[in-house]
Amino acid sequence: MTNSQRVQAAGAKRRRLMSAAARTVHRQGVERTTIADIARAADVPVGNVYYYFKTKDDLVAAALDEHRRQLELITGELDDLPDPRERLKRLVEGWVAQRDMAVRHGCPTGTLAAELGKREESELADATGDLVRRLLAWVEAQFRELGQPEPDALALTLVGAYQGMSLLANALRDPQVMTREGARLTAWLDSL
User: Fold this and answer.
1) What is the rounded distance in angstroms from the CA atom of residue 190 to the CA atom of residue 183?
2) pLDDT of 169-181, one tens digit each?
3) How far, in Å, are 55, 125, 127, 192 from residue 113 at the CA level?
4) Residues sharing a CB contact under 8 Å with residue 70, sequence separation 6 or more, in sequence order
5) Is the pLDDT assigned to residue 122 strictly greater than 80?
6) pLDDT at 94 over 80
7) Structure confidence by residue, pLDDT tens digits, 29-58
8) What is the DSSP string of 141-184?
């Protein structure tokens, strides 16, 4: 194996671990997730995990990085749409499409923010807040492009509605909460 191939393989393994960390922490929560759980989900020997991530908090930070990467990917794809209203509606459609996951585990970012917000140290909680701020900024930019007054307040309304419907779908174990509320949000966006 050439040096270039080793570097590529190491990068691929690190990305697998990041993705596995994001999925596992979302399903099990930070406190219940072990490094062995993440290694198993990534199909990587436990000893190899420590080469990339020294502590569980490093893996949680990697999970946040994976969530950030996913957000950038989603918003980047949505940015290809010519109309900001259509971008927002597609965002809502994407949230609703994840309703079964929300029923089982809640919103990935919201549940992580709630769990990490209870810790004494705030570095990871701050990183979660930064991720939410990125989403809010993107949504606010769409409302601004639509010429809506108070685009920051509208962004809080939309993202807050998503967090609420995710939480309720999870608490009630009812995916129809996401479906119904997603339809209401879409109608609201059409009315603006």
Assistant:
1) 11
2) 999 999 999 999 9
3) 19, 6, 9, 30
4) 22
5) no
6) yes
7) 999 999 999 999 999 999 988 888 898 899
8) HHHHHTT-SSHHHHHHHHHHHHHHHHHHHHHHT-HHHHHHHHHH
Q: What is the DSSP string of 27-50?
A: HH-TTT--HHHHHHHHT--HHHHH
Cβ(175)–Cβ(102) below 8 Å: yes
Report which DSSP code applies to 81.
S
Q: Tell me the C-alpha to C-alpha distance, in Å, between residue 85 and each of 64, 69, 80, 169.
A: 28, 23, 13, 25
- pLDDT of 2: 86
CA-CA distances (angstroms) from residue 43 to 15, 46, 51, 134, 169? 12, 9, 15, 31, 31
Phi, psi of 150 (to 5 degrees): 50, 60
Inform me whether the pLDDT recorded for 97 exceeds 90.
yes
Q: Is 120 exposed, middle or buried (0-12, 13-18, 19+ CB in 10 A)?
A: exposed
The overall longest dimension of the chain from CA atoms, in Å, is 59
Per-residue pLDDT of 108-120, as tens digits, reads: 999 999 998 888 7
